[in-house]
Amino acid sequence: MTALSAIALQNVHLSLGEGAGRVHILKGIDLEIAQGTAVGLIGPSGSGKSTLLMVMAGLERADKGSVRVAGTDLSPLSEDGLARFRGQNVGIIFQSFHLVPNMTALENVAVPLELAGDRDAFSKAARELEAVGLAHRLHHYPAQMSGGEQQRVAVARALVVEPKILIADEPTGNLDESTGNQIVELMFAAQKARNMTLVLVTHDPALARRCDRMIRVRSGEIEPEVHTATSKAAEEVSA
Ligand SMILES: Nc1ncnc2c1ncn2[C@@H]1O[C@H](COP(=O)(O)OP(=O)(O)OP(=O)(O)O)[C@@H](O)[C@H]1O
């Protein structure tokens, strides 16, 4: 791993499920991502993209291989250690928002800071919600907000801990095109402004092309890389 690697995976294998339902999903992943870059992960449905994200986020443990994220080797960490690591280093945005339904926008965004014992949790959460254009929705519950507004809350919640790594799994998958584009702009603007590393799973080739690198996953393996700025082949990605 070079000094500037945000994420370094070596020979990572992971199987999930029990008994006959056990599936060998990641089959020897080698991947290094430099700090401050945006990476689009693409590939057919079921190829292992989300599972790979979960390994990078410390939400799934590799069965074999080495996983270093933000300078930390994840394998020796306890469950509590992993949770602390995630809380300090990783912001995650899911397709289906994953907000807590009985908490307001402000409370949802404050949660990661409260867990970290931050006394300014609510004022920081309010500032982050203002930054994503939701100053007028602080006290609304998820059910009282549109999908786009809920995803903005999720973006604010991911960003509020100032993570080094931002991970997004199909963040526009449940949104119409124009709303999805607004979320994408927010994510890329935050990534640049804060020099974060962004790893994004998407089925949208146009979105993947906006990233510095586009990495294709097929059957649990990484394919040779397509260079986004130069290659027309990117157009033909069957995401
Ligand atoms: N907990 C699990 N137990 C058993 N199999 C699983 C589990 N989670 C995922 N899988 C299987 O692993 C494979 C990869 O899943 P994953 O969600 O990582 O793929 P993906 O590339 O993100 O797919 P999609 O683009 O459809 O979201 C799939 O065949 C899936 O059914």
UniProtKB/TrEMBL annotation:
Residues 7-237 form the ABC transporter domain. Belongs to the ABC transporter superfamily. One of its GO terms (molecular function) is ATP binding. Keywords: ATP-binding, Nucleotide-binding, Transport. Pfam families: ABC_tran (PF00005). The keyword Transport applies. It comes from the Bacteria. This is ABC transporter ATP-binding protein. SUPFAM superfamilies: P-loop containing nucleoside triphosphate hydrolases.
